[in-house]
Each structure stands twice: as C-alpha cells, then as structure tokens.
Amino acid sequence: MRLYFPYDSKISRAMERIRRAFIAYSPPGTLFVDNMETDVVHCLNWVGQNPREHTARCEIVQGVPTLPLGSKYIVFVHVGNPHYRDLDSYYQRILAGALLVVTYDREILGYEGSNVLETPWGFEPTTFYREPRARGYKILATGYVAESEAIDACFDACLRLQAKLCHVGGLLRAIPRHPCYDRYEGISDSELRDLYNSSEYVSGMRREGGFELPVLEGYACGCRPIVFEQPTMRKWYNDFAIFVPNLPRGELVKILVDVLRQPTNLNPRPDALEKFHWKQIIARVWISLLEGSR
Predict the structure, then answer these.
(1) DSSP helix/strand/coil, 217
(2) pLDDT by residue (tens digit) across 224-239?
(3) Is residue 13 in some structural domain?
C-alpha cells in the first residue's frame, strides 16, 4: 500500500505524534510517498475545517491539504463539525467515503457509519518513562491558550501554594513573569521527559474536551494527571487520573489548591499504561485499514 501523509508544521505536536507512530509501525511493504499520486491513500487530520472547500481560514490552522485528494483516503478525527453546521452534508460525505475513520471517541463525530475505529491515542514507552529525579515543579501544563487549557488556574494555584508551575507552550499574555513560573517551547522529547520527571502533577484540563496526550506521557513519567470531569476523560483515564469539575477560573483555583497541596511520588501502573503503547494501537489501525481497503 502506498500512502501520502505529509508533515504539517502548523498542526499540534500531538497530531504529529500520531502521524509519526502511524508511519513508524506500518507493516512491511508499506510506502509513504512525498506527493499525491494515482492509487495512493491520502491520510488527513480532521480538526473541524471547512468540509466543502479549502479556504484561507483553513490555512491558518493547517499547512497541508485539508480535504481528500482522491477517492482513497483515511481520516484521523480530533473534533466533529462544530464550525460549519450548514455544510454538514459535505462533512458526512467525507467520513462516509473514507476507507477508515480513526477517532478517540465515537461520540464526538456526529456520524454513524460502520467505517469507524475508536481507539485511544498513545505514547512511546521508550521515550516517556519514570526516572529518579527531584520533582521541583508542582504541576506541568501544556498549551497555547491560558483560559481554555486552565493554565491560568494552574498558575493561580501555584501562587497560593508558593509552588512552581512548568508550562510547555506559547507565550501567554494572561500570565506575567514570576519566580513560580517557567515556560519552555520547542523542546525535544528527551527534554520534555526531563520536565515530566521534574513535576508532581500534569494537567490534562482542556475546557472543550479532547484526549490530551500529556496525560499519558506525564503519567508514564510519574506525574499524577488532573483532568476535567468529561465523558472522554472517564472513558480512557478513569483508572489513574484525578477528576475536577469544569468550573470558572476562580472556583477551579480553590479546588486545585486542595489537590496540589498533597505531595505525590507516583509509580505508574504498567497494566494501566500497556493499552496505550503506540505499537499495539497502530497495529489495530492497520488491521482495520487493510480490511476496509479490500
């Protein structure tokens, strides 16, 4: 099988991890090509783009083609169709025509076809693992939007506790420079592993929902994950995460202070992590894809 799954410099690092794992654990005889050609399977990420046409607005978020190039394609779905309700028939047509629709939660799709594989996303156990290290950060948070990813609430909670927040992501106007706050951006996976291993907790709080790979990666490195009370989070992280209500910043800070006040030195459970290993997750994706393409 020949596939086209181009690198996208604009899309999130989590989605690039999915792409890399899909390529790394592809079966023998698979070839990934640099350009879309005849009889090539196009692999694309669905992040809520325009389902009818590729627009300038689409290019703000993605740097590659956002609609299927040809009749053979698979779609990795991260969100349904929240932005283009009036074009839902086009969205439904895209998913119905796919060889395979891969998503972490069927409920987000708004689509009832039989070509859907529900699977968790994963982590690479040779990259993210626990190391003996002093945990100088109270919590590690990732992201680029302070409010929607509750980074602002993590900052406030650390201020009250006189503890340190580690933020991996973009510059945030809502958070001032302060001794309790360190920010990192554009770091390697080994550097990220070091930061996870230097943190007691990891935030997977995203107000609009999602899967949140830092929950897995951080937990593998010995962080205690904190997530919002949401169905997707319960589906995948019920065994090892702390659940908090999705409240406004001020109310959430009070809850986080109580949670973070408790020191933790977690040893992740191997049985809890095993189902999230990329190798076995991608094996299921490829089995479903090859069956659907016959």
Answers:
(1) helix
(2) 999 999 999 999 999 9
(3) yes
